[in-house]
């Protein structure tokens, strides 16, 4: 292992790592070499040199083109991290030279936005007005690869959805309760308590199966002895969900309670008094093991931890 490390430290070039990324993106040596402004023979030689250094082949030929094997996937992942870190280095150096305050990129699940992430982003902006801040809102499963590649500094979500959760540091923050919602003028909004059986004849706005809300809704309906809704309207967009509910009294859906309360306060939705039997899932701060947080990301994570402590 030490010999391999010595070889990499003395002979590895960033151009070789960029070529790996291009090969992973384009699945073709010809297209990757064109994207890198290299001749195909030079690209082939650079790949061969890298494989010789690592003492392992990195790609296999398939019907869809060049596909990284397990060694290749590992090296490509670290190549993307190094490329992202170098890009961040260049940006920070340029920002320091220009007298501005750096950059922070935060990934977050939807349920953490209203009560956790948004207040801290506003506070961070007030403390550091020159800091460039980017927010990525998506599922944990989709954001963890972005964390792996260095495209986000940290994720407010769940590491448990990964097939390798031990790759990450995870610090729990709070639970994410869900609730059943309808449009503001829905006929059920005056009821004292509503069961899932009472909603059986309404049409549901549901979510794709990869979203946790879909699994929880299926579990709740199963506990109530009901099947999943037939012919639902499915969307991954909370804005589309809210818009559909607002425009039709025949629809019902499920949302994180923190998100639903925002729309309820603005007279767009109503939260139905449906008792949920499933335990709320916990979310927290997810960071890469072995990665070093930027000063801005480190401060933001500390602010999140302080906000979640009981007062």
Name given to the CATH architecture of the largest domain: 3-Layer(aba) Sandwich
Which segments are poorly predicted (pLDDT under 50) over 5 or more consecutive residues? none
Structural class: alpha/beta
Strand order of the largest sheet: 4-3-5-12-6
* CATH homologous group name of the largest domain: Periplasmic binding protein-like II
CA-to-CA gap between the ends? Answer: 50 Å
Strand content: 15-25%
The overall pLDDT average reads 88
Count of beta strands:
12
Which CATH class of the largest domain applies here? Alpha Beta
Q: Report the order of strands and helices.
A: HHHHEEHEHEHEEEEHEHEHEEH
DSSP helical segment count: 11
CATH topology of the largest domain: D-Maltodextrin-Binding Protein, domain 2
Total domain count: 3
Helix percentage = 40-55%
- Sheet of most strands: 5 strands, mixed
Provide a descriptive summary of the structure in words:
There is one protein chain. With 311 residues, the protein is α/β, with parallel strands linked by helices. It has 3 domains: 2-78, Winged helix-like DNA-binding domain superfamily/Winged helix DNA-binding domain (Arc Repressor Mutant, subunit A, Orthogonal Bundle), CATH 1.10.10.10; 100-176 and 282-308, 3-Layer(aba) Sandwich (D-Maltodextrin-Binding Protein, domain 2); 178-279, D-Maltodextrin-Binding Protein, domain 2 (3-Layer(aba) Sandwich), CATH 3.40.190. It has 11 helices and 12 strands. It has helices at 2-11, 14-26, 29-35, 40-54, 70-98, 113-127, 140-148, 212-223, 238-247, 257-265, 295-308; strands at 59-62, 65-68, 103-108, 132-137, 154-157, 168-176, 178-183, 203-206, 233-234, 251-256, 269-271, 281-288. The strands form 3 sheets. The chain has a 5-stranded mixed sheet, with helices on both faces. It has a 5-stranded mixed sheet with strand order 9-8-10-7-11. A hairpin with a 2-residue loop joins strand 1 (59-62) and strand 2 (65-68). Helix 2 (14-26) crosses helix 3 (29-35) and helix 2 packs across helix 4 (40-54). The longest helix is centred in the first third of the chain and has 29 residues, at 70-98. The protein is globular and about 70 Å long. The N and C termini lie far apart (50 Å). The relative contact order is 0.13.
């Amino acid at each position: 292992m030490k010999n391999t490390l010595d070889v990499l430290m003395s002979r590895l070039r960033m151009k070789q790592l960029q070529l790996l990324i291009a090969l992973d993106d384009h699945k073709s040596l010809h297209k990757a070499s064109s994207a890198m402004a290299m001749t195909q023979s030079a690209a082939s030689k650079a790949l061969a040199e890298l494989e010789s250094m690592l003492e392992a082949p990195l790609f296999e030929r398939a019907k869809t083109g060049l596909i990284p094997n397990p060694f290749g996937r590992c090296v490509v992942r670290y190549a993307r991290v190094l490329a992202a870190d170098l890009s961040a280095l260049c940006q920070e150096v340029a920002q320091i030279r220009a007298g501005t305050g750096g950059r922070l990129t935060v990934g977050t699940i939807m349920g953490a936005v209203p009560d956790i992430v948004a207040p801290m982003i506003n506070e961070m902006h007030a403390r550091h007005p020159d800091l460039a801040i980017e927010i990525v809102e998506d599922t944990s499963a989709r954001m963890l690869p972005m964390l792996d590649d260095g495209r986000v500094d940290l994720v407010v979500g769940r590491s448990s959805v990964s097939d390798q959760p031990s790759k990450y540091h995870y610090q729990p923050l709070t639970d994410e309760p869900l609730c059943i919602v309808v449009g503001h003028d829905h006929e059920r909004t005056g009821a004292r308590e509503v069961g899932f059986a009472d909603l059986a004849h309404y049409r549901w706005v549901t979510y794709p199966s990869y979203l946790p809300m879909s699994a929880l809704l299926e579990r709740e309906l199963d506990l109530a002895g009901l099947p999943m809704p037939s012919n639902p309207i499915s969307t991954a967009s909370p804005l589309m969900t809210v818009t559909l509910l607002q425009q039709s009294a025949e629809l019902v859906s499920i949302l994180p309670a923190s998100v639903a309360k925002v729309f309820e306060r603005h007279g767009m939705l109503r939260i139905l008094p449906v008792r949920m039997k499933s335990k709320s899932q916990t979310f927290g701060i997810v960071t890469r093991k072995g990665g070093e947080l930027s000063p801005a990301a480190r401060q933001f994570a500390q602010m999140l931890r302080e906000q979640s402590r009981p007062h």
